[in-house]
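hey can u check if this looks right to u? its 389 residues, i copy pasted from the old doc so theres a chance i mangled smth
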Amino acid sequence: MEVEFGPVPYTHDNLNRLHDFVLSRDELRQAGYILGQLSSRDLDNKRRCSSCHRTIKPNNGRIPKQRQAPSAVPGTAPAARQHSTFAQPAPSRAFDIDAVFQQLTVSTTTKKKEEPKEPIMRCRFHPGQRWTCCRNYTHSKACSSSEWHTPRIYAAGELEMNWIFYTTPSAPTLLQQPAAVVVIDCEMGTAESGDSELIRVSVIDYFSRAILLDKLVMPDVKMAHYNTRYSGISKPMMDDALRRGNCLLGRDEARMAILRFIGPNTIVVGHACNQDLTSLRWIHPLVIDTLCIEKKRRKVDEGANNDTSAAPQRKNSGPQQQKQQKKKEEDENEDEAPAKREAGMSLKALAGEKLNRQIQLRGKGHDSVEDALATRDLLHWYVTHPAAQ
């Protein structure tokens, strides 16, 4: 049976329970939340290829590997480093001719002939972007490729202006009392630049379940697509909302609309909502992330299970065996892929597991109001089902 929680009384006790779930500053940073303006290095990581629009990752200061110089012939002294990298050291005559001949014979008979390797095509794209190059759909397999990315040329200050973040005002001018706790969910499309772009925002009140805000957001940049399969939003829907004057114009207006209901002491709730806050270019100090709650609970459960299963084995082993076993467990946890560790922790999966509720059904796309309500009920489930200590 589907679990749905109705309105929750607004009391200090209920509010204090929620404060226990608020992420610390370190936890926010570890979860990928932006806590300040981006550094020059962060902005460099935002640069994209002009052809495939993927981000171009710098080498982070690592020196590329160089080919190792040929090893010296047995019996010869190491050659001194030359000033020119093209200079060849003079051969030494003080070596055994038979030894050298034998080495060359063995190496020529055992060394396999290396076949020329095909270049790795890192950049795959449609040069016409939409149909004109190959008559295919925009999401079809790329018809062109290049071994290397072509960095896009940005105007002076373009990246900096696009990635300015704004904190919640300390003394906001509100027409009403700010909400104590809100739940937020956003939908994103993809801009022509390749960046994720906000196209819908929904905000509900945690205690009353009232919908405070639910609007489409007309991006102020050119869009490649609206990610309709997942967002549930199409270009005709956006154009119709614009004609009716029923949408917000750009992320800045969307952020200002949210701040009409929110003060610096408001708790913002979301599921992996670091992405939502980033799409709004918004920094807020009080955040509850239901994904982080689930990660913590699973980590506690896994630790308890590991301790229970490993206890008999460690009891009958010496200090050296215990040390080796502990190192083996740490190596296994470290090698585990992040995707595997987070498997089954999507909002859809958790809503089905904890609430017996089906959301984001195939073919319908996401509904940000439905997702926000699911996140709200999921948080209340965690409140009413405390984890075992």
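The two ends are 28 Å apart (CA to CA).
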